[in-house]
Structures
1.
Amino acid sequence: MTTDLPSPPPATLHDPFAPLIAQPADALLGLIALHRADPRPGKTDLGVGVFRDDAGRTPVMRAVKSAEARLAETQDSKSYLGAEGDAAYTEALAAIIFGAHRATGRLTGVQTPGGTGALRLGAELLARANPAARVWIGTPTWPNHGPIFAEAGLEVRSHRFFDPATGAIDFAAMVDDLAEARAGDVLLLHGCCHNPTGISFMPDEWRAIADLCAARGLTPFIDLAYQGLGDGLADDAAATRMTFGTLPTALLAYSCDKNFGLYRDRVGALWVQSAGTATASLVRSNILTLARSLWSMPPDHGAAIVRIILESEALRTEWEAELDTMRARLNALRQAIAAADSRLAPIAGQRGMFAMLPLSSSAIAALREDHGIYMAPNGRINIAGLRTDTIPAFAAALLPHLDTAGEAR
Ligand SMILES: Cc1ncc(COP(=O)(O)O)c(C=O)c1O
């Protein structure tokens, strides 16, 4: 049987899509394709933000495999759960994030498709509550942050916080820039393991940020996408706990996609803390109607896996041990990179999967072309893309280019 394609429409037909403007291709996805097409055996992918083991793989965690087997055996229905998703998942997750002390009556949480879904749902809620709110985001940040808030209709403003020359925090610059923030504005913060810089605020800086939010009427929106991959589950949640414990209102976007290795299963959650219980129920009803129009209900599989792991003592112990191994690998690689040259020393004190190297765009291109080393266009590297035995070659390729730091990127 032949299937003839319909003939093209007459040229005079109105095309409703003609006004669209072509969008730039995603730089990281382009990098995946380039890396895949590179035939050199020693090529190194430091671009994509997924954890890799020492063999370069991103395996399914053992605790996840066991939970999946348990789910397949015991799940007797795939009927709808509702816009809030799996409430037992959200509850089990809240315990590892917020600990024992939660403003239960004022804190409301729902399951979302990944951390991205949580950020977008929070952005839609903020835009609905106060369309004039501006969202302050430190530069550099995860490239999706700005578009998520802008697409929800909110104005996005940038502030400084990081000095690329020293690889350290410039807190005074952050406070200076935030002098322009108005009451009702939102301050986006990475809860731990900053993407792309790997730097963390010190506890006293977090307290100063909370004081600033309280004094100026700003709402903190914490993005916690790497809990357990920095200093440990409790330590990585410390800033979130302090912020929620200190301030009447705050939002948290959470991702289980890195710390449970569930990337494509899209597992996240959003929590919103309100000043009072009446507002909390307003918030919840608005979150649920927004979620209903965005995705109706979040995908269940990954969240069910996380719930099964967190509700089983044995699986939770296994997951925590695997997470400890992942974190130890990242931190050992950090030490080894830092030991290669004093200019790389700040990397040892940074945390999480990423670091940002002060490289010009021509240096980034040369590393790719001459050495098969692939990294994001802003000089971000995924630490987990390295191996202890590849670090000397990586450092040898990199060091001549570090002298070009300061050139335009
Ligand atoms: C800082 C940050 N927030 C949120 C996310 C989103 O994670 P998810 O894949 O769960 O949407 C990422 C993913 O890379 C991230 O780096």
Note: Residues 49, 114-116, 142, 190, 195, 223, 225, 255, 257, 268 surround pyridoxal-5'-phosphate (CB under 6 Å).
2.
Amino acid sequence: MLKFHVADMSCGHCAGVITKAVKDADPEATVNIDLAAHMVLIEGAADVNKVQQAIREAGYTPLAQP
Ligand SMILES: [Cu+2]
């Protein structure tokens, strides 16, 4: 599972935009959002860089978590 902390994901709108961006980049990915923790959890994604880039291009600042 890939984990990103996205500090500037602050509401349901942000969560929706990020979910869509990730799914567009990788349709196989399953996206779970923990808004309170500002975490984006992604299962089944092939390429961490592709997913991270997609979140960045959507206008957010993803930090990959160990
Ligand atoms: Cu928002």
Note: The two ends are 10 Å apart (CA to CA).
